[in-house]
Specification:
By secondary structure, this protein is mainly alpha-helical. The chain is built from 18 helices and no strands.
């Protein structure tokens, strides 16, 4: 029975649910813009701070290594303490570090700021998605996360602003502007971003897994997560899908240039112009469809990404096998659109199979494995390139891997059905 206090708390949660999404939409935008814009101003930075290509590459590698290795513990902080406070502190610190980057005088200082940014940004994504999941426990969870992830994609697509500002003004100006904006926005968030009223487990909403008597510790979280076979399969799934992403994004410009004898500029255009618009549409539609289907099928958030991958796989295979440029572009457009059904439903799937107390920790673990696979795939791509492997082979391999990923989702669905005692 819902008491007056429960009802009042529930109404506050409803009012804060979409406000939280839109506040975090902006933070997600900044999260990816601040990390990626350095790569778009390489010439300006190297002119100001002389360094080798290897050193410039190390700036990104250090961020990736620190970000990935710390993600599980960063996620645990959001499970152990206030999610909103972790988000606000993370935003404040990485924005301050962004501002500090503008004042780097040598390579060592620049490298240090990238490492610091890796530490502070690692705390954001697990906490943000877990907070959204706390608020959206019913038929809006996937769409809410999709909208947030749309902000991330816009941040990625706007990375060119760094290069534009560096070319027309000074490389440090972009870090100064966005660093100050982020610090100011963190202050705004302090007044408006809140945890679920009454605590995460206190809302009169559908019950989810979790033993409230168990002490919340990092080791308990890791043990609890990996004790479930479905979580292990999800880790493998996300790692393999990360491999697919790096294969396609990393080698698509080269494929267009060499296979269709295009200029470097046109190959880059054909490889990128549709990715962010279609990916944005994919996370929004993938969230909307999963939520609608979830009303009649409790496995919708697992099944829809699997269907998306089974559509994306033959499209990518065809695109990597055809000699017709328009067919290749069309195939990769379908891939960019349906592949992202997974992005918007990954946290909802995690909510179904993981202990509620360790959602952010679980997402941090997934983040870590994605970063490890990303680093390995970059290296493996270079090895295959040196071995003169045809890029068509890479895309066909990616297509087969997506089918494997879909099968892993079906396996997770079967395990979930057995453990919850329902087949519908």
């Amino acid at each position: 029975m819902i008491t007056y206090n429960d009802s009042e708390r529930y109404q506050k949660a409803i009012r804060g649910a979409w406000l939280t999404v839109f506040l975090l939409f902006v933070v997600g935008f900044l999260n990816y813009l601040d990390r990626i814009m350095l790569t778009t101003m390489r010439t300006s930075i190297v002119d100001a701070i002389p360094m080798t290509d290897a050193q410039f590459g190390l700036l990104t590698s250090v961020f990736l290594w620190v970000y990935g290795l710390l993600s599980p513990y960063a996620g645990f902080l959001a499970d152990r303490f206030s999610r909103s406070k972790v988000i606000i502190v993370s935003l404040f610190v990485w924005s301050a570090v962004t501002w500090l980057t503008a004042h780097a005088q040598n390579f060592e200082q620049l490298l240090a700021t990238r490492a610091l940014m890796g530490i502070s940004e690692a705390c954001y994504i697990p906490a943000a998605l877990a907070l959204i999941a706390d608020y959206h426990r019913g038929s809006t969870r996937s769409l809410a996360i999709g909208i947030h992830n749309g902000g991330i994609m816009i941040g990625q697509s706007m990375g060119f602003l760094g290069g534009w500002i560096a070319e027309n003004h000074h490389w440090s100006d972009a870090f100064t502007v966005f660093g100050i904006f982020g610090v100011a926005y963190a202050v705004v968030m302090f007044f408006f971003l809140k945890d679920v009223p009454g605590g995460r487990a206190s809302l009169p909403l559908p019950a989810e897994q979790g033993n409230s008597d168990e002490k919340i510790t990092f080791l308990n979280g890791i043990k609890t997560l990996f004790k479930r076979r479905s979580f292990i399969l999800l880790v493998i799934f996300w790692g393999l899908l990360g491999l697919v992403g790096w294969m396609i994004v990393g080698w698509l410009p080269t494929y267009y240039k060499e296979h269709y004898q295009l200029s470097q500029t046109m190959a880059g255009v054909y490889a990128t112009w549709y990715v962010y618009p279609l990916s944005f549409a994919g996370v929004i539609l993938g969230g909307f469809l999963a939520d609608r289907w979830h009303r009649s099928n409790r496995y919708a958030r697992i099944l829809l990404p699997a269907i998306g991958l089974l559509i994306a796989a033959p499209a990518a295979y065809m695109a990597g096998a055809t000699d017709v440029l328009l067919l290749a572009i069309g195939g990769f457009m379908v891939y960019a659109f349906t592949r992202t059904f997974t992005d918007t439903n990954l946290m909802p799937i995690l909510c179904m199979i993981a202990d509620e107390k360790y959602r952010a920790t679980g997402y941090g673990v997934l983040n870590m494995f994605a970063c490890i696979v990303g680093g390995l795939s970059i290296y493996a791509g270079g090895v295959l390139r040196d071995a003169s492997v045809n890029t068509q082979v890479l895309f066909k391999t990616a297509a087969i891997t997506m089918v494997v990923c879909a099968l892993l989702l079906f396996a997770i669905k079967s395990i979930y059905a057995r453990t919850t005692g329902s087949s519908k």
